[in-house]
From TrEMBL:
SUPFAM superfamilies, A to Z: DNA-binding domain
MF GO annotations: DNA binding; zinc ion binding
InterPro entries tied to this protein: DNA-bd_dom_sf, Methyl_CpG_DNA-bd, Znf_CW
Keywords from the UniProt entry: DNA-binding, Metal-binding, Nucleus, Transcription, Transcription regulation, Zinc, Zinc-finger
Protein name: Methyl-CpG-binding domain protein 4
Domain of life: Eukaryota
Organism of derivation: Salvia divinorum (Maria pastora)
Length: 151
């Protein structure tokens, strides 16, 4: 019974696509082992600064490059690799990735604080025009609709 409930929730959250990100990970810039990242927020922090501050195993408490990888890249799951430099999602917004039904790519959208879905930079501009007080802390440059590359 518990499995069905989780599957139902998963279907509702994925909207029109299938599948959700179930694990967040980062690859060590030194040993190239994959390390699980406990939360999406922590992953976004690492992802947004990866070019200027690469991830290393030692950034995880009690972990070193000598330890086995947390997860191995294999064919048991679909891997989605982000481009470096995607900005951290602005506070109050939620970045969501949805796999297309044909498994060809992942679409990205943002849930705004008022619940509106933003699917493109033009949506962000219109949203910020309606809520000018947010323009002080959020700009269109804080959003990227670039989806990860599927592996």
């Amino acid at each position: 019974m518990k499995k069905k409930t989780q599957q139902s929730k998963r279907k509702k959250r994925s909207i029109s696509g299938i599948g959700l990100v179930d694990l967040w990970s980062a690859q060590c810039a030194e040993c190239f082992k994959w390390r699980l990242i406990p939360t999406e927020e922590e992953f976004e922090e690492i992802r947004s600064k990866f070019s200027e501050d690469p991830f290393f195993c030692s950034k995880k408490p009690g972990v070193s490059c000598d330890d086995p990888a947390d997860i191995e890249r294999d064919k048991t799951r679909t891997w989605a690799i982000h481009k470096p430099g995607i900005p951290k999602t602005p506070s109050g917004f939620k970045r969501t990735l949805v796999m297309r039904k044909d498994l060809s790519k992942m679409d990205c959208y943002y849930d705004a604080p008022n619940g509106k879905k933003l699917r493109a930079l033009t949506d962000v501009g219109k949203f910020l025009d309606k809520f000018p007080d947010l323009k002080k802390s959020v700009s269109p440059a804080d959003f990227s609709f670039t989806g990860p590359k599927l592996m």
